[in-house]
Amino acid sequence: MKIGQTHEHDTVILHLSGHLGVGESVRILAAAVRRALASGASGVVLDLSGVGYLDAAGIGVLIAAHRRALRDGRRLVLTGLRARVRSILGLARVDGVLDCARDQTSALARVLHTEILESSLAGKGAPGTTPMALKPTVV
Questions:
Q1: pLDDT single digits (tens) 108-136
Q2: Inter-residue contact 47 to 82 (CB < 8 Å)
C-alpha cells in the first residue's frame, strides 16, 4: 500500500494505491489518518481510485477512521471507489455507514459544507454570511 498526501481547502486528501487488507497496509492507513486528523484539518478525503481490492481488515480500518473523525468533530469522505471496492462495501453493508462521494470535488464539498454549517450553528458564521444565508446543498 502506498499513500500520497495533498491538501486542498484545509482538507487532507490521502491518495491510496494497492491492496487494503490484513497486514502492513491497515497500519499504514490508520497512522496516516491519525496524522491527518492531528494536523487540525477540517476533514479527510480518502481517494481509493488506486485500490483494487480490500478485505475485512481494510473495511475495519475504514470504519475505525470514520468513527475517529466523527469523534474529533471532523468528516471523513471516501471517493474514487472502483466497482469491485464499491461492491465489497455493499456486500459488507457498510456503504450506508461510510460517507462515499462520486468524485473528489463532491468529497471536498461535503467536508467544507459541514465546516461552514457547524461554524454557523456556533454563531461564528463564514466570512460574509449569516446563518440565515446558508442553504443546504446536495452533493
A1: 999 988 555 445 444 544 444 444 433 34
A2: no
Q: Could you tell me the three cell numbers for 47?
A: 481517494
For 25-81, the pLDDT digits (tens) are 999 999 999 999 999 999 999 999 999 999 999 999 999 999 999 999 999 999 999
Among 59, 1, 67, CA closest to 28: 1
The grid cell for 115 is: 465546516
Residue 100 — φ and ψ, nearest 5°? -115, 130
What three-state secondary structure class fits 42? Answer: coil
Burial of 64 (0-12, 13-18, 19+ CB in 10 A): middle
Pairwise CA distance, residues 62 & 14, whole Å: 13
**Rounded Cα gap, residues 88 and 56, in angstroms:** 9
* C-beta neighbour count of 123 within 10 angstroms: 7
Alpha helices, DSSP H only, in 20-72? Answer: 24-38, 56-71
Element (H, E) at 48: strand 43-54
